[in-house]
């Protein structure tokens, strides 16, 4: 097995990039549609435990970034973007699609949620391979 060196600063930056993407994705781009598809109101969002949600999301996305970093190893930036895209699209979006079919979620909600990860993993791949 090949030894892989991980740049931990890049992992943290890649993790934080998912929050930046999420703020835009679930804010001005798809925020209202996402709320409608989930049946959420502004009041529902205000009553959520945001510390728990953001804290847990950070840990989960950190694990995703670490995992991707190990897969990318010595890849170039273009390979990082490509493999990040394939991870987001081929694994995450398709797996979510299966779950959304059985839970009878809408195609629109599947698109909003899964393509957030396609964009996030693509950018994580760039960050993780740019900072070696």
From TrEMBL:
Residues making up the signal peptide according to the UniProt record: none
Keyword annotations from UniProtKB, A to Z: Membrane, Transmembrane, Transmembrane helix
Keyword Transmembrane set for record: yes
InterPro entries found in the cross-reference section: DUF1761
Top-level taxon: Bacteria
Transmembrane parts of this sequence: 6-26, 53-74, 80-102, 109-131
This protein's name: DUF1761 domain-containing protein
Taxonomic source organism: Fulvivirga kasyanovii
């Amino acid at each position: 097995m090949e030894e892989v060196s991980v740049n931990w600063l890049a992992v943290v930056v890649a993790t934080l990039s998912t929050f930046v993407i999420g703020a835009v994705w679930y804010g001005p781009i798809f925020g209202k549609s996402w709320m409608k598809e989930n049946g959420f109101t502004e009041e529902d969002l205000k009553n959520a435990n945001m510390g728990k949600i953001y804290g847990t999301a950070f840990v989960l996305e950190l694990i995703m970034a670490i995992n991707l970093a190990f897969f990318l190893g010595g890849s170039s930036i273009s390979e990082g973007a490509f493999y990040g895209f394939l991870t987001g699209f081929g694994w995450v979006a398709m797996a979510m699609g299966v779950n959304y079919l059985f839970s009878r979620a809408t195609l629109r909600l599947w698109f909003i949620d899964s393509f957030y990860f396609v964009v996030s993993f693509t950018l994580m791949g760039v960050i993780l391979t740019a900072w070696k």
